[in-house]
């Protein structure tokens, strides 16, 4: 199984924003993308997960939507404020479904 995140860690965007410039440069080099990809780094991480040989690929909705740390599901050790995050269908765009479907097709995660 591969995933870009779980309920207990930051969103991909939040994680990215917490990195130093040097760390971001390393991640971009690892992914083989340039500075222009920073705005959509969550999609680069989703692509990486989808391309994995893992049988299952799980992408949290916060990562599909490209949301920051304020949208994390749970902060372990905090007694309040966790498990309250919800998405609204108004946040979801047709492009999200198209991109996920294309990655599923491209990497064999969808029959046909």
What does it look like?
This protein has one domain (2-106). 40% of the residues lie in helices and 4% in strands. The protein is built from five helices and two strands. The protein has helices at 12-18, 21-31, 41-50, 61-64, 94-106, and strands at residues 2-3, 57-58. It has a two-stranded parallel ribbon with strand order 1-2. It starts with a strand and ends in a 6-residue tail after the last helix.
Report the uncertain regions: none
Which shape, going by the Cα principal axes? Answer: globular
- Whole-number count of domains: 1
Question: How many β-strand stretches?
Answer: 2
SSE string, helices as H and strands as E? EHHHEHH
Task: Give me the secondary-structure topology.
Elements: E1 2-3, H1 12-18, H2 21-31, H3 41-50, E2 57-58, H4 61-64, H5 94-106
Parallel strand pairs: 1-2
Labels describing this entry:
112 residues
Describe what is shown at a glance.
The protein has five helices and two strands.
